[in-house]
Design brief:
It is a single chain. About 40% of the residues lie in helices and about 5% in strands. It is mostly helical. The protein has a two-stranded antiparallel ribbon with strand order 1-2. The protein has a two-stranded parallel sheet with strand order 3-4. A hairpin with a 6-residue loop joins strand 1 and strand 2. It is globular and about 70 Å long. About 15% of the residues are buried.
Length: about 210
Protein backbone atom coordinates (compact mmCIF):
# COMPACT_ATOMS: atom_id res chain seq x y z
CA UNK A 1 0.00 0.00 0.00
CA UNK A 2 1.15 3.52 -0.72
CA UNK A 3 2.03 5.53 2.35
CA UNK A 4 2.21 9.30 2.51
CA UNK A 5 4.51 10.69 5.16
CA UNK A 6 4.14 14.32 6.24
CA UNK A 7 7.28 15.78 7.80
CA UNK A 8 7.39 19.11 9.56
CA UNK A 9 10.41 20.78 11.12
CA UNK A 10 9.65 23.78 13.37
CA UNK A 11 11.90 26.76 12.68
CA UNK A 12 13.03 26.74 16.32
CA UNK A 13 13.95 23.05 16.39
CA UNK A 14 17.51 21.77 16.48
CA UNK A 15 18.28 20.37 13.05
CA UNK A 16 20.95 17.94 14.21
CA UNK A 17 24.65 17.97 13.43
CA UNK A 18 26.63 16.83 10.45
CA UNK A 19 28.76 14.57 12.64
CA UNK A 20 25.86 12.48 13.88
CA UNK A 21 24.25 12.27 10.46
CA UNK A 22 27.54 10.87 9.25
CA UNK A 23 27.34 8.23 11.99
CA UNK A 24 23.75 7.36 11.10
CA UNK A 25 24.64 7.20 7.42
CA UNK A 26 27.49 4.78 8.08
CA UNK A 27 25.40 2.59 10.40
CA UNK A 28 22.68 2.43 7.74
CA UNK A 29 25.23 0.86 5.39
CA UNK A 30 25.72 3.78 3.02
CA UNK A 31 29.02 3.81 1.15
CA UNK A 32 31.41 6.76 1.44
CA UNK A 33 31.16 9.43 -1.23
CA UNK A 34 33.67 10.09 -3.98
CA UNK A 35 35.71 12.15 -1.52
CA UNK A 36 35.93 9.21 0.88
CA UNK A 37 33.66 10.75 3.52
CA UNK A 38 30.33 9.54 4.86
CA UNK A 39 27.05 11.42 4.81
CA UNK A 40 27.36 13.00 1.36
CA UNK A 41 23.66 12.34 0.70
CA UNK A 42 22.57 14.35 3.75
CA UNK A 43 25.06 17.23 3.86
CA UNK A 44 24.13 20.62 2.42
CA UNK A 45 27.56 20.99 0.88
CA UNK A 46 27.17 17.85 -1.22
CA UNK A 47 23.37 17.60 -1.60
CA UNK A 48 21.98 21.01 -2.53
CA UNK A 49 18.34 20.00 -2.99
CA UNK A 50 16.52 20.34 0.33
CA UNK A 51 13.73 17.91 -0.59
CA UNK A 52 16.13 15.17 -1.67
CA UNK A 53 18.37 15.71 1.35
CA UNK A 54 15.44 15.46 3.78
CA UNK A 55 14.14 12.38 1.98
CA UNK A 56 17.60 10.80 2.23
CA UNK A 57 17.64 11.47 5.98
CA UNK A 58 14.21 9.89 6.31
CA UNK A 59 15.34 6.82 4.37
CA UNK A 60 18.41 6.46 6.60
CA UNK A 61 16.26 6.55 9.73
CA UNK A 62 13.84 3.99 8.27
CA UNK A 63 16.75 1.71 7.35
CA UNK A 64 18.13 1.94 10.88
CA UNK A 65 14.70 1.16 12.31
CA UNK A 66 14.32 -1.85 10.02
CA UNK A 67 17.74 -3.20 11.03
CA UNK A 68 17.12 -2.54 14.73
CA UNK A 69 19.89 0.04 15.12
CA UNK A 70 19.13 2.75 17.66
CA UNK A 71 21.09 5.80 18.78
CA UNK A 72 20.13 6.26 22.43
CA UNK A 73 21.10 9.30 24.47
CA UNK A 74 22.54 8.40 27.86
CA UNK A 75 21.25 11.66 29.32
CA UNK A 76 17.51 12.20 29.68
CA UNK A 77 17.97 15.94 29.11
CA UNK A 78 19.76 17.99 26.48
CA UNK A 79 23.13 19.02 27.87
CA UNK A 80 23.73 22.02 25.65
CA UNK A 81 20.94 24.59 25.93
CA UNK A 82 19.89 26.33 22.73
CA UNK A 83 20.39 30.05 23.26
CA UNK A 84 20.34 33.11 20.98
CA UNK A 85 23.73 34.43 19.98
CA UNK A 86 24.80 37.60 21.79
CA UNK A 87 27.69 39.94 21.09
CA UNK A 88 29.99 42.26 22.97
CA UNK A 89 32.15 45.21 21.91
CA UNK A 90 35.78 45.23 22.97
CA UNK A 91 36.47 48.61 24.56
CA UNK A 92 40.07 48.74 23.38
CA UNK A 93 39.82 47.87 19.70
CA UNK A 94 36.07 48.50 19.26
CA UNK A 95 35.72 45.09 17.59
CA UNK A 96 32.54 43.06 17.99
CA UNK A 97 32.95 39.52 19.33
CA UNK A 98 30.33 36.81 19.93
CA UNK A 99 29.80 35.88 23.57
CA UNK A 100 30.29 32.28 24.55
CA UNK A 101 27.00 30.53 25.17
CA UNK A 102 26.31 29.65 28.78
CA UNK A 103 26.38 25.93 29.53
CA UNK A 104 25.84 23.88 32.67
CA UNK A 105 28.91 23.58 34.83
CA UNK A 106 31.15 20.75 33.62
CA UNK A 107 31.17 19.03 37.01
CA UNK A 108 27.41 18.53 36.63
CA UNK A 109 27.86 16.27 33.63
CA UNK A 110 29.03 13.25 35.65
CA UNK A 111 25.99 13.32 37.95
CA UNK A 112 23.65 14.05 35.02
CA UNK A 113 24.85 11.03 33.05
CA UNK A 114 24.94 8.75 36.10
CA UNK A 115 21.46 9.64 37.33
CA UNK A 116 20.03 9.37 33.82
CA UNK A 117 21.62 5.95 33.38
CA UNK A 118 20.49 4.59 36.75
CA UNK A 119 16.96 6.02 36.67
CA UNK A 120 16.07 5.56 33.00
CA UNK A 121 18.54 4.56 30.30
CA UNK A 122 19.81 1.43 32.05
CA UNK A 123 16.30 0.00 32.27
CA UNK A 124 15.69 0.44 28.54
CA UNK A 125 18.96 -1.35 27.76
CA UNK A 126 18.23 -4.12 30.27
CA UNK A 127 14.72 -4.73 28.97
CA UNK A 128 15.91 -4.90 25.36
CA UNK A 129 18.69 -7.33 26.35
CA UNK A 130 16.44 -9.57 28.46
CA UNK A 131 13.83 -9.75 25.70
CA UNK A 132 16.48 -10.77 23.17
CA UNK A 133 16.25 -7.60 21.11
CA UNK A 134 19.76 -6.34 21.87
CA UNK A 135 22.84 -7.95 20.38
CA UNK A 136 25.44 -5.26 20.92
CA UNK A 137 25.85 -2.04 22.93
CA UNK A 138 28.36 0.49 21.59
CA UNK A 139 29.26 3.31 24.01
CA UNK A 140 29.83 6.53 22.04
CA UNK A 141 31.79 9.26 23.81
CA UNK A 142 34.74 9.06 26.18
CA UNK A 143 32.84 10.75 28.99
CA UNK A 144 29.94 8.31 28.68
CA UNK A 145 32.39 5.48 29.10
CA UNK A 146 34.27 7.22 31.91
CA UNK A 147 31.25 8.32 33.97
CA UNK A 148 28.82 5.44 33.41
CA UNK A 149 31.68 2.89 33.34
CA UNK A 150 32.02 -0.39 31.51
CA UNK A 151 31.00 -2.30 34.66
CA UNK A 152 27.55 -0.67 34.77
CA UNK A 153 26.99 -1.34 31.07
CA UNK A 154 28.01 -4.98 31.46
CA UNK A 155 25.64 -5.37 34.41
CA UNK A 156 22.76 -3.93 32.37
CA UNK A 157 23.12 -6.62 29.69
CA UNK A 158 23.75 -9.50 32.11
CA UNK A 159 20.91 -11.53 33.62
CA UNK A 160 20.60 -12.25 37.33
CA UNK A 161 22.11 -15.71 36.80
CA UNK A 162 25.21 -14.23 35.13
CA UNK A 163 24.32 -14.89 31.49
CA UNK A 164 25.42 -12.22 29.00
CA UNK A 165 22.38 -11.25 26.93
CA UNK A 166 24.33 -8.85 24.72
CA UNK A 167 27.88 -7.76 23.99
CA UNK A 168 29.31 -4.44 25.16
CA UNK A 169 31.84 -3.18 22.65
CA UNK A 170 34.90 -1.11 23.33
CA UNK A 171 33.95 2.60 23.47
CA UNK A 172 34.39 4.90 20.53
CA UNK A 173 34.99 8.66 20.87
CA UNK A 174 32.12 11.04 20.11
CA UNK A 175 31.99 12.22 16.47
CA UNK A 176 33.04 15.78 17.30
CA UNK A 177 36.26 14.41 18.78
CA UNK A 178 37.04 12.65 15.49
CA UNK A 179 37.29 15.94 13.65
CA UNK A 180 40.52 16.80 15.46
CA UNK A 181 42.48 14.50 13.19
CA UNK A 182 41.87 14.99 9.51
CA UNK A 183 40.52 11.85 7.87
CA UNK A 184 40.47 9.95 11.17
CA UNK A 185 36.72 10.31 11.63
CA UNK A 186 35.75 8.55 8.43
CA UNK A 187 38.26 5.78 9.10
CA UNK A 188 36.61 5.18 12.47
CA UNK A 189 33.19 5.21 10.82
CA UNK A 190 34.31 2.59 8.32
CA UNK A 191 35.51 0.37 11.17
CA UNK A 192 32.26 0.90 13.09
CA UNK A 193 30.23 0.13 9.99
CA UNK A 194 32.08 -3.17 9.53
CA UNK A 195 31.55 -4.20 13.15
CA UNK A 196 27.80 -3.54 12.94
CA UNK A 197 27.61 -5.30 9.55
CA UNK A 198 29.28 -8.40 11.00
CA UNK A 199 26.78 -8.56 13.85
CA UNK A 200 23.74 -7.97 11.63
CA UNK A 201 24.56 -10.31 8.78
CA UNK A 202 27.11 -12.78 10.11
CA UNK A 203 26.22 -13.03 13.80
CA UNK A 204 29.85 -12.24 14.60
CA UNK A 205 31.08 -10.08 17.45
CA UNK A 206 34.76 -10.27 16.56
CA UNK A 207 36.77 -7.50 18.08
CA UNK A 208 34.22 -6.99 20.87
CA UNK A 209 34.67 -7.93 24.47
CA UNK A 210 32.02 -10.04 26.21
CA UNK A 211 33.99 -10.71 29.39
CA UNK A 212 32.35 -9.33 32.51
CA UNK A 213 34.66 -6.99 34.43
Amino acid sequence: ANTTVHMQCPSTAAKGTVQFWKVLSALAGEAPGDDGTFGTSVKKTTMKCDNIRIRNKFNILMKLRKEGIWLLDTSMIGWYIQQPRTFNINRKNKMVYPNEKARPQSEMKRSTLLLSWELYTKHIVRQAANEGHLQMLIPVGNQVNEFVTRIRMEEAVTSTDGVHKAVVSDPTPAPNAWQKEEGDGDRRLLELQQVVHNVLYHGSSRGLSSKKE
